[in-house]
Amino acid sequence: DGNRLWSFGDFGRISGNYYNWKNIDEGFGFDAKVDDIYLAEMPYNVKAICYDMYGAGWFIADDNGKIHYVIFEEYNETTDKTGNVKIYLVKPKVDVVVANLDVDELMAGIPNNGKNYKIVLGWKGNKLYLITMDAKKFEDWAYNSRYTKGYSEPFPSVKIREFDYDGNIIDARGEYGAGNYHYYIVVATNNGLYIITVENREPDKFKIADTLKTNIKVYAFDVYSGILAYSDGNNVYYTDIKSRYESENSDRYVYYFGRNYEGALSLGGITGLSITTNYNDFGTQLKVAGNGYIKTYNFEFELKTDAKGNTLYDENGDPIYIVKFVPKIVDNDE
Q1: Angle CA 173–179–185, to nearest 5
Q2: Rg of the chain, C-alpha, whole Å
Q3: 280 contact partners, CB below 8 Å, separation of at least 6
Q4: What CA–CA distance (Å, rounded) separates 5 from 42?
Q5: Given 33, 83, 187, 262, which residue has the most CB atoms within 10 angstroms?
Q6: In which region does residue 64 sit, left (phi positive, over 0), alpha (psi from -120 to 50) or beta (all else)?
Q7: 29 has pLDDT over 80
């Protein structure tokens, strides 16, 4: 019915763990071996949900154009219809509306962008919303709402920045982890890649610092290394995130996509990409999925030079590399 959320893991206490959610409409079976199953039945249909590890609660988008912040309380034990699987029923202790926005996806960020702003992302179609709030006020409110008896202060005020893009949004992520929006946010649409610089800026100064216009069907972004791969369905291209000072006398950075890489991997029917950073002999690897195949490649780079052996540079002053996608067979026992 769209309002039921299932969790596998310690959902009742919400002590900083991650959880796997399924909306009941996606189908659910009890044939898997699971120690703990938790069920929350919400008073509204749920479109998107993300855990906020810094506030001990959840941001939830309903189907009525509202984004909620929810803190769940203790649970009651029951069983499924076979009587064999334990199900713990939880219910909201706090459920407040944070913003009136119609979104299909949500992602919560870290508590501080250098100006003490917490950032939450929401998007639908070609519109991206950056919901910002004072990080300290939010954390104090979340802690007291969860642990202080009789606490009933309103949710801290939020500011919302809206960005419109050319093409529908595929994904939006920050650096060093899905939720670490301390420096920048990468936005992928079917018509290009974009970087929003947020480091040490007030919300009204968040800006699209760079755009790489290209046809994208699938892409992968390794949030730890800043490496990206993207494909139009038949070719895979490589780029990464670079930085420079905003101006000659500035101590603030802006971030941009590398344009100093040449070469592509040509395959037909590409349907998925994944980048794996292995801290072993295999190095950083690219997984490419297609119609009937999954292939593994390593990135290798050859410095581009002129006839005299001099290094060639792009318009940003970065040395140009020829990217080679080298097939690899991964054996974790080596």
Answers
A1: 35
A2: 23
A3: none
A4: 8
A5: 187
A6: alpha
A7: no
Tokens of 298: 């390593």
Sequential DSSP letters for 239-285: EEEEEEESSTT---EEEEE---EE--EE-SSEEEEEEEE-SSTT-EE
Summarize pLDDT for 262-318 with one digit per residue, the tens. 999 999 899 999 998 765 566 789 999 999 999 999 999 999 999 999 999 999 999
- Inter-residue contact 109 to 174 (CB < 8 Å): yes
Q: What is the DSSP letter of 313?
A: B
Q: Report which residue type is found at 118.
A: K
Q: What is the pLDDT of residues 109-123, one digit of tens each?
A: 766 677 888 889 999
Kindly report whether the global pTM for this prediction surpasses the value 0.70: yes
Q: How far apart are CA 243 and CA 197, in angstroms?
A: 10
Q: Bridge partners of 328?
A: none
CB atoms within 10 A of CB 302: 12
Question: Tokens in use for 104?
Answer: 């299909």
